Amino acid sequence: MQLTQIKTILIAGAGTMGQQTGLLCALNDYDVVIYDISDDILSKGMARIKKNADRMTGFNLCTPEAADTALSRISTTSDIKIAAKDADLVIESVPEDPELKGRLFHDINQCCKPDTIFTTNTSSLLPSMFADQTGRPEKLCALHFHDVAISKIVDVMPHAGTAKETVDIVTQFAEDLGQIPIVLTKENNGYVFNNMLMSFIGSALSLAANQVAPIEEIDRSWMGVMHTLVGPFGIMDGIGLDTSWKVTDYWAEKRNDPQAKANAAFLKTYVDKGNLGIKTKQGFYTYPDPAFGKPDFLTPPKSKQ
Ligand SMILES: NC(=O)c1ccc[n+]([C@@H]2O[C@H](COP(=O)([O-])OP(=O)(O)OC[C@H]3O[C@@H](n4cnc5c(N)ncnc54)[C@H](O)[C@@H]3O)[C@@H](O)[C@H]2O)c1
Questions:
Q1: Which atom of ligand 1 lies nearest, measured to the CA of 100?
Q2: Does the beta carbon of 13 sit less than 6 angstroms from any atom of ligand 1?
Q3: Read out DSSP for 88-99?
Q4: What is the pLDDT of residue 239?
Q5: pTM higher than the cut 0.85
Q6: How far is the CA of 227 from the centre of ligand 1 (A)?
């Protein structure tokens, strides 16, 4: 299959990522069909896509004409047969459950063309967990987006049974969307960025959970040396402490790692109090004016005198 043969994209799941990737594909001249389990969910998803398009025109990221053209390229359906009929490439963005993803790919496989490419946007699962259920494992790989509004990095990750041709075409497709594909040579939990981020966050949590240093000192150390605007605890407040706890706890149990379990317990004390980070205005820091964002956070004490 050639990139020029990819014209119609099936977005499975009209949630956060389905909305973002659907609009991205439409803005890059692809016809987009968004599939979800109910028409009500689809119309709410479509309303949010329109809002996102308005925001983009507001920030001069695209012209109102380009946004209108893109929106006219997007259709929605809760009928899987209609959704899959003309699809050349599928971007699956349904909840993080290997059985659900496997079942969905199995159903799409019954209704789509023989050469349709399947991609999954999973954050923490591996394509091999449901490759067999797709009925076309050689045509499946991960195409993992980060927040499309702030990042152009995408991961392209094959499983052991993915054909090279599939990796090549998905990589070209990602480039055609204006993204920067990071092509992995084999499956890896957390791809590249998330894998590094998990180690970084785990290390910061160990320092705090073992009372080596307070949270602010750990962030100050990282920010002061690396000249970043935020440190690991500020980052976790952005991700959400509930999500950070869930991921930490999942891997702690799976790997039976005592330090990771202590890190998860440390995070849980915040979650139990409802302090989930930026979204609740209270996490490790208090928002909208967190200590690490104040001008004197990195001012040497002598200069403050
Ligand atoms: N949210 C993020 O920041 C982010 C980033 C990268 C990757 N991901 C991954 O993308 C996937 C989706 O995440 P999300 O945040 O968009 O989730 P979400 O909960 O916002 O949306 C999921 C959508 O899938 C729909 N759905 C459920 N079952 C379905 C089915 N059988 N068929 C069709 N649609 C179905 C739901 O109704 C919902 O609209 C997950 O695998 C997640 O790990 C999320």
A1: 31
A2: yes
A3: SEEEE---S-HH
A4: 86
A5: yes
A6: 34
How many Å lie between the centroid of ligand 1 and the Cα of residue 222?
A: 33
Q: DSSP assignment of 34-93, as one string?
A: EE-S-HHHHHHHHHHHHHHHHHHHHTTSS-HHHHHHHHHTEEEES-HHHHHHT-SEEEE-
Contact 24, 148 (CB under 8 A): yes
Give the integer Cα–Cα distance in Å for 52 and 164: 35
The domain made up of 193-299 has a fold known as N-(1-d-carboxylethyl)-l-norvaline Dehydrogenase; domain 2 (1.10.1040)
User: What is the domain partition of the chain in residue ranges?
Assistant: 3-183, 193-299
Distance between the two ends of the chain, CA-based, in angstroms? 68
pLDDT band at 304 (very low <50, low <70, confident <90, very high): confident
Mutational test site, ligand 1, from 10, 16, 100, max ligand atoms within 8 Å of CB:
16
At the second CATH level, the architecture of 3-183 is: 3-Layer(aba) Sandwich (3.40)
